[in-house]
């Protein structure tokens, strides 16, 4: 059996990757401008941390390794400003968000790299539909065994990351009724999912990978579209479920949350095997209903996700004090409890202007750090949908056109 070397990293270090949308500033559709943008940035000091993605309407920012999220935030602001300057020179705009609200997957162009071309040939239209945008959070761990333990320990909290980061309610001009529709595209791939529950150490992980290779199911760890997975060449555990937030501030708050949570779970016993029982249901609830979804704890208790999150923040605050990140976690908590996630904000924007291109324009302005990006109009009436398994009579219909979107969503104009 082939061994997989694991590069040791200092515990509690972190870094992030952000997949970003390239926007045509005339019609606010996606722009296939990644190649031009990469050329424009070729001589910039951060050029090696700006990467292409699977389609040419995407670009990826990679941070360096940080011990403290405050340093990460300073770096990400500098990278954001440099990217926006280069985008201006090329004639495009940049936005966060987990999915473009009205793009058509048929119009996406695959990037010219051997791996991306292989994925397009292998997965057909799924490759172009994979024009969705996520934040990956890397947490340093000292060994492969520690990585597997961390994956198991963080897995019950995957719904919390989904709900806090959700920013993809619209897709191809339709309100999907999901807070996060992006993960539906990810879950279309055959090796999506999670680490097998029976894999408990690095040796067993190596054996699992060997079985996948021998069966022709995977060539490398890159083929595992898991929610959270080891990244041995970086010496990290990689959380992969977050939508790209609309701002770098929210992205770095999520990284601070992940860092504090990693410390917390390292001090607690491993979750029981029953934690996997509700994994897929919890995942769905967070994608569909966001912070208002139902959550089943590893010990079988059912409650609202936002209520479990409130209690979790209380447990995290003493650790945030140790790490010096209380302010960042407190801001994330306040925004989540008071104003919800970015998906709620996007729906609020739509219900003011009834125009998805105008929503995308506000996304580009918010990404630049413009705090006055919210457009002003009368708030839409709030509508509640139950996040339970009960049938909904007289249910809510997804929007067929932007003009049809007068019946769902919220009116909040606050953004972190």
TrEMBL record:
Catalytic activity: L-cysteine + L-glutamate + ATP = gamma-L-glutamyl-L-cysteine + ADP + phosphate + H(+)
A GO biological process held by the record: modified amino acid biosynthetic process
Region (Disordered): 383-416
Coiled-coil zones: none
EC number of the protein: 6.3.2.2
Molecular-function GO terms, alphabetical: ATP binding; glutamate-cysteine ligase activity
Summary of the function given for this chain in its UniProt record: ATP-dependent carboxylate-amine ligase which exhibits weak glutamate--cysteine ligase activity.
Family that this chain belongs to: Belongs to the glutamate--cysteine ligase type 2 family. YbdK subfamily.
Protein name listed in UniProt: Putative glutamate--cysteine ligase 2
Species of the source: Bordetella genomosp. 4
């Amino acid at each position: 059996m082939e061994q997989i070397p694991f590069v040791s990293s200092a515990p509690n270090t972190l870094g992030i990757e952000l997949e970003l949308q390239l926007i045509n500033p005339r019609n606010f559709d996606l722009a296939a401008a990644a190649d031009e943008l990469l050329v424009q940035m070729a001589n910039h000091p951060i050029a090696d941390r700006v990467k292409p993605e699977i389609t040419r309407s995407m670009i990826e920012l990679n941070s360096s390794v940080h011990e403290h999220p405050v340093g990460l935030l300073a770096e990400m602001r500098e990278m954001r400003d440099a990217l926006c300057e280069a985008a201006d020179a090329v004639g495009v705009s940049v936005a966060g968000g987990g999915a473009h609200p009205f793009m058509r997957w048929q119009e996406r162009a695959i990037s010219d790299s051997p791996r991306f071309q292989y994925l397009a040939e292998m997965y057909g239209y799924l490759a172009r539909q994979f024009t969705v945008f996520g934040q990956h959070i890397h947490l340093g761990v000292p060994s492969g065994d520690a990585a597997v333990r961390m994956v198991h320990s963080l897995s019950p909290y995957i719904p919390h990351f989904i709900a806090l980061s959700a920013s993809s309610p619209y897709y191809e001009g339709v309100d999907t009724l999901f807070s996060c529709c992006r993960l539906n595209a990810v879950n279309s791939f055959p090796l999506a999912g999670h680490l097998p529950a029976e894999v408990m150490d690095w040796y067993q992980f190596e054996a699992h990978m060997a079985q996948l290779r021998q069966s022709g199911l995977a060539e490398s760890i890159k083929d595992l579209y898991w929610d959270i997975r080891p990244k041995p060449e970086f010496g990290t555990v990689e959380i992969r479920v977050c939508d790209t937030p609309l701002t770098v501030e929210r992205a770095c708050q999520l990284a601070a949350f992940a860092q504090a949570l990693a410390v917390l779970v390292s001090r607690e016993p491993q979750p029981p095997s029953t934690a996997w029982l509700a994994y897929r249901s919890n995942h769905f609830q967070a994608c569909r209903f966001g912070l208002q979804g139902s959550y089943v704890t590893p010990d079988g208790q059912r409650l609202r996700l936002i209520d479990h999150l409130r209690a979790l923040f209380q447990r995290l605050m003493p650790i945030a004090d140790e790490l010096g990140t209380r302010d960042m976690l407190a801001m994330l908590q306040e925004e989540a409890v008071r104003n919800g996630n970015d998906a709620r904000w996007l729906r609020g924007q739509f219900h003011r202007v009834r125009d998805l291109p105008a929503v995308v324009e506000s996304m580009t302005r918010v990404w630049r750090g413009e705090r006055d990006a919210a457009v002003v109009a009368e708030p839409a009436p709030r509508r509640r949908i139950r996040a339970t398994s009960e049938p909904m009579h007289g249910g809510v219909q997804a929007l067929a056109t932007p003009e049809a979107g007068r019946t769902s969503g919220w009116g909040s104009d606050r953004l972190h």
